[in-house]
Specification:
Helices cover 22% and strands 31% of the residues. It is of the alpha+beta class.
Length: 102
């Protein structure tokens, strides 16, 4: 079974302001994009469970023109807080990389 990283050109996370993280999953071709969408692997419900946020707080965007799926979630700790482990939000994409794609 393939993992998500094998279907993509880029998986990244970054800040979308100090209180929100955004994830960009950019696919290498239309077939991979469609395969992942059909698998229902990247739904707000699954992303919410994966990152411990309520499904209602997960915003998702499917942008076929650029073969990209985006998610935004609230940060648990604001960027720059004394308890923040990643000021730029660039290391939160890790759990997505090895997700199995059916």
């Amino acid at each position: 079974m393939a993992e998500l990283w094998q279907c993509t050109k880029l998986i990244r996370s970054k800040n979308a302001g100090p209180f929100v993280l955004t994830f960009d999953i950019m696919f290498k071709d239309v077939e991979s994009y469609d395969r992942v969408l059909k698998s229902r692997l990247l739904t707000p419900e699954i992303i919410g469970r994966l990152y411990g946020v309520p499904e209602a707080e997960v915003r998702s965007f499917e942008i076929k023109e650029i073969l990209t799926i985006k998610f935004s979630i609230p940060r648990k700790v604001s960027s720059g807080d004394v308890h923040d482990s990643d000021v730029y939000g660039g290391q939160f994409h890790g759990p997505l990389v090895r997700l199995p794609v059916g």
